[in-house]
Design brief:
This protein is mainly α. The chain has a single domain (8-215), classed as Up-down Bundle (3 helical TM bundles of succinate and fumarate reductases). Helices cover 82% and strands 0% of the residues. It has ten helices and no strands. It has helices spanning 2-10, 12-37, 44-55, 59-89, 92-98, 105-108, 110-133, 142-151, 153-180, 186-215. Helix 2 packs across helix 4 (59-89) and helix 2 runs parallel beside helix 10 (186-215). The termini are far apart.
Length: 222
Amino acid sequence: MFTWLRRVLSSSIGKKTGMALSGLALVGFLIVHLLGNLSILGSDSAFNDYAQKLEDLGPLLIVAEIGLLALFLFHIVLALLVSLRNRSARSVGYRAIGNMGEKTVGSRSMLVTGLLLGAFLIIHIIDFRVKKLMGLESAEDLGKLVRDRLTSPIGLSIYIGAGVLIGLHLSHGFKSAFQSLGLHHNKFNGTIRFVGYVLAIALAIGFAGVPIALRMGAGGSL
């Protein structure tokens, strides 16, 4: 395993492939995570039931959480390495030509949105996992705790912002992942780009929409 990891980190293609695969895996997690989060729009008790099912997994949940965090860090580290390599190899002339190519807000801000999402993940983990594991907060009514967090002025701003960041990052990242994996063909590029935009918009609206809906009174304690 360590030999494979060294090979990935030592070559440009390896880094981009690892970043693409980890990125697509994280997209899958985001979809599943959003579907679970939507249960709070029904009621706090529905969300509590969903959370309890996860807790019932016992040690498997801890292993999954550690694995997810490792996957995210792996993705971020590879993104930083690729970005640093590209910047060191890029000449002034190349930059001038590159600026004339196909650029979007999403493509220009990939590194920034990725780092900001990393900061958000730290806040999110501290907010809903670390405090609970340390016994600093009661988890008897997790639905109410989540509702209170997401509808507070600061929480509302943070989680809406996170939704927007996810949308921006995926608007370019999804298509880029397939290109890094060599799945780049004129016959499929349009479809991949369309699916990427749909996912980006859906996840952005989903994650940003949950706190907005809660703020407007969706769900409840039933």
